[in-house]
Amino acid sequence: MKIKKSVVLLSGGLDSSTVFAIAKSEGYEVYALSFDYNQRHRRELESAGMVASALGAKKHLVIRFDLREIGGSALTSDIELPKTPSSSIPVTYVPARNTIFLSFALGWAEVLEAEDIFIGANAIDYSGYPDCRPEYLRAFEEMANLATKITVEGKIKFTIRAPLISLKKSEIIRKGAQLGLDYSLTWSCYDPQPGPLQGSPAGIPCGRCDSCIFRAKGFREAGITDPLQKP
């Protein structure tokens, strides 16, 4: 029987870790792909490593490059990180980030002959990033099948899988919990604060950035205690 392979974009966050658990539950051999792009919240990479190990990634690849050379985001420059909700696309948007990430994933998937690329994009409880929308993912999938040797030769057809795209954060958390995902391994905060956190690497969530707010709302609505929050 042919092994089902997938490339899963794994930031170490709540959404991408849940997507990893979903891919495993569907019988995929998972190749996890993370990025050290000199982001403000590089703490998430520790979580990515822990999740990849706990869920049994076939391989966990971390690609390094420096998006601070480009800047344009509060996550990759000295722009102040907002701690209040925004009605427009917030400054935590990183220019072309998902396009860059998916392009690396596509290259690796072509080499692996992995037809499915998983991403934790969500268009419900999210910050309004344009590269998290269904129409963007459909466009990237079309491009992927036009731009690669393996698809032009008719060997495989790529599918961009975004199983969380239309779920509320609470539904995502319940799904991960059902699959046995340990959310204490994950990280969401954009602005980690110094200090110990029991059972986790150093650093505590700020509790006030967009990502922390969406995470707290999700756990509250799911009726589940966030293991990263102090009792």
Report what the structure shows.
With 231 residues, the chain is an alpha/beta fold. Helix 1 packs parallel to helix 2 (44-55) and helix 1 (14-25) crosses helix 6 (169-178). The model has no long low-confidence stretch (mean pLDDT 93). The protein is globular. The chain contains seven helices and five strands, in the order E-H-E-H-E-H-E-H-H-E-H-H. The relative contact order is 0.17.
Précis, in short:
This protein has one domain (about 5-220): HUPs (Rossmann fold), CATH 3.40.50.620. About 35% of the residues lie in helices and about 10% in strands. It has helices at about 15-25, 45-55, 95-110, 135-145, 150, 170-180, 210-220, and strands at about 5-10, 30-35, 60-65, 115-120, 160.
Task: List key phrases describing it.
single chain; 231 residues; alpha/beta; Rossmann fold; 35% helix; 11% strand
Treating each run of at least 4 consecutive H or I residues as one helix, how many helices?
A: 7
The SSE string, one letter per element, is EHEHEHEHHEHH
Describe the largest sheet: 5 strands, parallel
The helicity comes to 25-40%
If you consult CATH, what is the topology?
Answer: Rossmann fold
Instruction: Give the full name of the CATH homologous superfamily.
Output: HUPs
Count of individual beta strands: 5
Instruction: Please tell me the CATH architecture by its name.
Output: 3-Layer(aba) Sandwich
Structural class by sheet pairing and helices: alpha/beta
Gap from first CA to last CA: 48 Å
List low-pLDDT spans: none
Mean pLDDT: 93
